[in-house]
Specification:
Blueprint: E1 9-10, E2 13-19, E3 22-27, E4 31-33, E5 36-39, E6 45-48, E7 55-61, H1 63-79, H2 84-97, E8 106-111, E9 116-119, E10 125-126, E11 132-136, H3 139-149, H4 156-170, E12 179-183
Antiparallel strand pairs: 1-4, 2-3, 2-11, 3-12, 4-5, 6-7, 7-8, 8-9, 9-10
Helix pairs in contact: 1-2, 3-4
């Protein structure tokens, strides 16, 4: 099958919500190949503990690429304990300049409970303006839904779960089988 005719992997929606001193990162479980659901229970949100400092990360994109990035992030966090922003910037710099890492196709949302960042292969380390970040196939749907709920009485987890449910109703590459990790507060 030529590279142009390969249908491609789809199926990740990851959201990070920071509210009332807590951060929740939630991810759906769907992985699709073209129009076929390959797996409905993938786990795309992980808890890391380099040097005893808790970090939660969610990834969208190629699984192997994401695991490579998570390993690199752990190494950066071990070198700069408790400094998520610095470790994220160092990872983004490596990702942007290293010829091997440049080929990786994934994005990350990471949090230590105080800060939340989106890290991209373009060298970006983005802190969301409205305490909500989302990536992946249904990311824009989840982002819009969560932003609409941020002024409500809902907790960070309730906002994340409700936003993911809305994304799953709209995006064919997103399902309601969630992995949810909470950190902070």
């Amino acid at each position: 099958m030529s590279e142009n005719s390969f249908p491609g992997w789809h199926g990740t929606t990851i959201i990070g919500v920071k509210k009332a001193g807590r951060v929740v990162i939630a991810g759906d479980g769907q992985v699709s190949l073209g129009q076929t659901v390959i797996k409905g229970s993938a786990r795309k949100v992980r808890r890391l503990s380099p040097g005893g400092h808790e970090v939660v990360a969610g990834f969208a994109g190629s699984t192997a690429d994401a695991f490579t990035l998570l390993e690199r992030l752990e190494t950066k966090l071990e070198a700069t304990p408790g400094q998520l922003a610095r470790a994220s910037v160092e990872l983004a710099k490596d990702w942007r300049t290293d010829k091997y890492l440049q080929k990786l196709e994934a994005m990350l949302i990471v949090s230590d409970g105080k800060e939340i960042f989106v890290i991209t292969g373009a060298g970006d380390v983005l802190e969301p303006e409205h305490d909500v970040a989302a990536i992946g196939s249904g990311g824009n749907f989840a982002l819009a839904a969560a932003r609409g709920m941020m002024d409500s009485d809902k907790s960070a987890e309730e906002v994340a779960r409700a936003a993911m449910a809305i994304a799953a109703d709209i995006c064919v590459y997103t399902n309601g089988n969630l992995t949810v990790e909470t950190i902070g507060g």
